[in-house]
Write a structure and sequence with these properties.
The complex is a heterodimer of chains A (about 475) and B (about 425). With about 475 residues, chain A is of the alpha/beta class. Helices cover about 35% and strands about 10% of the residues of chain A. Chain B has about 425 residues and is α/β, with parallel strands linked by helices. The longest helix of chain B has 24 residues. The chains are: A alpha/beta (about 475), B alpha/beta (about 425).
């Protein structure tokens, strides 16, 4: 296999739900060996493995796949490329095994609430005793420092507390907010960015470190101009005309900047043919030249030549008429036709794309290899969301589905930690490597039996004792 | 490492050339605040991002853009016209000293000037060059133009954001504010660049990275894509909560102070012991209604009464402030959050405890302002804003001087329109 850019690094992934797994997922795509340490108790449904097993609105379980710990497509995508080992950190033998894994890893990343790792005896002070140059990234919502560090968050709470929810919607009604956990995606990005930054620093200095990431703080930094407007000009964001929907400025409200770029018009959503919930397009003109090009694309209608639409000031003042006239034109066309016609003339336009549109209809994402099919033993073969970047010298493709729970138990427990096959079998029975209250997955037992039959119950010579690139 | 470290930040030995507009300036800022020597290359007269408001005291002026201030901290700034031969010569000299070139120009533009990756690599084989463009260097949309709004439409953000029809009939899909299309692109560019730097530390080789805002945005909708891939499900927009295939109970409620609280969704779904905790808290404010009744010890009864419980919850929230709701809930283990605006956030001492706010001096104005700080606290390699955003051409003498350009030569270059 061709070497990926981070081949040789080992990451211990103690993450759950979404933001943390998404962070560690990128380390796997980039070539690091990512070991997800799990405890498969269905009562801990928030590990995401059981998401959608009830057929509820979060379902991503393909038709015909029975519910279980390996039935969530979302989990597979979110944990693509990782290995899975099941260890009970709260058992003495499991705790010892985890400490030995830490000793041979470069990075430990987790997104539990703030005192969980310390309660396990795995706070940073303990980690450095085990591995002096370990990189430890924690991702609690409010961080591990500060008076409210023990508060808990989910993505939507991070968005509310950071000001992001308030920035989304129409004026004079409640915030629309974000219709998904943007800060699970973006909190995950900051987790991955923190790991990489600390790894780079360790490459230059030999020093490990602890990054106490706060997802809410990360969200706040995304609203910098609004905070500066408050400090410099005394202008808050609870004001007339804010947030301005899809416009740069709300008609009739004082003409101030709303932190989404230049204050221009047209800059809005318009209905397109079809009449569906997502039959909308967007158009934005950032210069008079772009506006004149749009007028030509629309067939140079008489209204568009009215003097009141000739300048930004005029178009902003008369936005309601401007938008109504533009929509009369877009409404007759398919949303992709609007994009193609406008863009061919140098006018910024795009369709509002659904999840189906992106996966099945978007020719650009297709050309850019955005979805890569990968087999999964329980789900079948489905596309994974692939990295949006390519490197000229090293591959970095998301091409391996998420692991079955405990799929790499033998490779890790036996191959890296030296437990015999019989030790593992005993650990499945005594609550060290599998919860006593949960029926064991048959493939885990079958794997042990196959291994015993080969007579390789000792050390797996293929295992790495320490990381290649430490 | 061949270069000396010049700052204590994690990127203290990294020099980045930033030939970037709104798409990439956030990536440059993140690296600059972590110690990289980021040299922002602007056209003579200044970058167009300087025209983006809001402005200091409403003065529409290229040195007064608060947008520019926020997105360009800790960078040095030079002016350079790479469409002149002298400008290109200086650019090539700079590239020879750089670790990273981050550029956001249209696909093919730099190559048309003789400044494509192949030419630049010949000058500096260790160069990591990252092109962050709207749609990428390849594909049928590669020459299409983007904007924040365009990317939030095509990327799928707007599919999910908006209002339930009963709340705002006929509302369009909503693009959330704040320029987050650019943030998404910059985050993936950052990941790719730092990865390439780590790989270079082993291989000694640079590389070329092709990434796009559209690709980044399309990856930033959490479970929406898996919902289609695995379940062929579409989602519907719902006010203040997740877009999902079916209608769900409200989770965002109005409080006494006119602000909102996000209760985490789920309406009236509580386990009996948790409902008891909630009801006792409500009772302290006189809003428990019938929820302390013994019948609620039965999970089946709670199931039947879910919508009623949701209504009581809504009336309770309307009777207390959003901050009372936030802290009261969190202290009882409920995962709620106040829907805050910046003016609410700056009141929260938690962020002072973390040292989040950062004072940045603006000597040109004789004033100091409070900037948002770091997402994370680095124990060994501190984050810091080392200086305010550069003035136009502020570091021309420093940066070009280090290449051997003396003052007289610089004046001649200025005269010729090269800098």
């Amino acid at each position: 296999m061709e070497e990926k850019p981070l081949t040789g690094f080992r990451v211990l992934d103690f993450t759950w739900v979404r933001a943390g797994p998404w962070a560690a997922r990128w380390m796997a795509t980039l070539g690091a060996e990512v070991i997800k340490v799990e405890w498969p108790d269905p009562r801990l449904a928030m590990n995401g493995r059981y998401g959608g097993a009830d057929g509820g609105p979060m379902a991503s379980r393909p038709p015909g796949v029975p519910p279980g710990p390996n039935s969530s497509g979302h989990f597979s995508d979110n944990n693509a490329g990782k290995d899975s080992v099941t260890i009970n950190v709260r058992s003495a033998a499991g705790f010892d095994a985890v400490k030995r894994l830490i000793a041979m890893s470069d990075v430990l990343i987790e997104n539990y609430s703030s005192q969980v790792m310390e309660s396990w005896g795995l706070g940073y002070d303990e980690l450095v005793k085990i591995k002096p140059d370990i990189i430890y990234v924690s991702m609690a919502g409010l961080g591990h420092t500060g008076r409210n560090h023990d508060y808990q968050t989910m993505g939507n709470i991070v968005q509310a507390l950071s000001g992001l929810t308030h920035s989304s919607g129409l004026p004079d009604v409640e915030p629309a907010g974000w219709g998904w956990s943007y800060m699970d995606d973006t909190g995950g990005m900051y987790g991955a960015m923190s790991v990489l930054t600390a790894l780079y620093h360790r490459r230059s200095t030999g020093q490990g470190q602890y990054v106490d990431l706060s997802q809410v703080a990360a969200g706040m930094t995304l609203l910098g101009p609004a905070f500066l407007d408050l400090d410099v000009n005394g202008r808050g964001s609870r004001r007339e005309g804010y947030p301005a929907g899809n416009r740069a400025a709300w008609p009739g409200a004082p003409l101030v900047n709303n932190y989404r770029g230049q204050t221009v018009a047209p800059h809005n959503t318009y209905r397109t043919a079809g009449g569906g919930d997502n039959d909308w397009c967007v158009i934005a003109c950032f210069s008079d030249e772009e506006w004149r090009a749009l007028v030509q694309v629309m067939g140079s209608p008489e209204w568009a030549h009215e003097q009141r639409f000739a300048t930004f000031a005029g178009r902003l003042e008369h936005q309601i008429d401007l938008d109504r006239n533009i929509e009369a034109w877009t409404q007759e066309q398919d949303k992709y036709a609007v994009m193609d016609r406008c863009q061919a003339a140098g006018v910024r336009a795009a369709p509002v794309q659904t999840n189906e549109d992106r996966v099945d209809n978007d020719p650009q994402l297709k050309a850019r290899n955005a979805y890569v099919p990968a087999p999964h033993a329980v789900l079948g073969t489905f596309p994974l969301q692939n990295a949006p970047f390519t490197f000229s010298e090293t591959p970095a493709v998301t091409d391996r589905a998420g692991p079955l729970v405990g799929e790499h138990n033998i490779a890790i427990l036996n191959g890296k930690l030296g437990f015999s096959i019989e030790d593992i079998r005993a650990g499945y029975a005594d609550g060290t490597f599998w919860p006593a209250s949960v029926p064991i997955e048959p493939y885990l037992v079958a794997a042990l039996d196959a291994h015993s039959a080969q007579g390789t119950s000792g050390h797996d010579s293929a295992g790495h004792e320490s990381t290649v690139r430490s | 490492m061949t270069q000396e470290r010049f700052s204590a930040g994690p990127f203290g030995d990294v020099r980045v050339l930033e030939l970037a507009d709104v798409k990439g300036e956030w990536c440059g800022k993140l690296m600059a605040d972590l110690g990289a020597d980021v040299i922002k290359i602007e056209p003579p007269g200044g970058a167009p991002e300087r025209e983006i408001g809001p402005f200091y005291h409403e003065e529409v002026h290229p040195e007064r853009s608060l947008h520019f201030w926020h997105y360009n901290t800790s960078k040095r700034g030079v002016t350079l016209n790479i469409e002149t031969e002298d400008g290109r010569a200086l650019f090539r000299q700079l590239v020879a000293t750089a670790d990273v070139l981050l550029e956001t120009t249209r696909p093919g533009y730099l190559a048309s000037l003789g400044l494509g990756y192949e030419q630049l690599r010949a000058l500096n084989p260790r160069l990591v060059m990252c092109s962050l463009t709207d749609f990428g260097q390849t594909g049928p949309w590669r020459d299409y133009l983007g904007s924040d709004l365009i990317h939030l439409a095509a990327g799928g953000q707007m599919e999910s954001c908006g209002y339930s029809d009963e709340d705002v009939p006929g509302a369009p899909p909503i693009a959330p504010g704040g320029g987050n299309g650019w943030h998404m692109g910059s985050h993936y560019a950052y990941i790719a660049i730092v990865t390439a730097l780590i790989w270079r530390s082993f291989s000694g080789k640079g590389q070329y990275i092709d990434t796009s805002v559209h690709g980044a945005a399309a990856l930033t909708t959490e479970m929406k894509v898996p919902m289609w891939i695995y379940s062929r499900m579409h989602v519907r927009r719902q006010t203040g909560r997740q877009s999902v295939p079916i209608p769900t109970p409200r989770g965002q409620f109005l409080c006494k102070d006119g602000k909102y609280i996000t209760t985490g969704g789920g309406g009236g779904r509580f386990a009996p012991p948790r409902l008891r905790v909630l009801a006792e808290w409500m009772d302290q404010h006189g809003f428990a209604e019938d929820l302390l009744d013994e019948q609620y010890a039965d999970a089946a009864f709670i199931d039947q009464r879910q919508s009623h419980i949701g209504e009581v919850l809504e009336r309770f929230c309307a009777g207390i402030t959003s901050e009372q709701a936030y802290h009261g809930a969190q202290q009882r283990g409920f995962v709620w959050g106040a829907v805050r605006a910046p003016e609410d956030i700056v009141q929260d001492p938690h962020w002072d405890d973390r040292g989040f706010w950062t004072e940045v001096a603006h000597p040109e104005l004789g004033e100091t302002f409070t900037y948002p700080g770091a997402s994370g606290i680095y124990s060994a390699s501190p984050w810091q804003i080392s200086r305010r955003a550069p003035l136009i051409g502020e570091h021309n003498e420093d940066v070009f001087g280090a290449l051997g350009v003396d003052r007289a030569h610089l004046a001649a270059l200025r005269e010729a329109g090269a800098v």
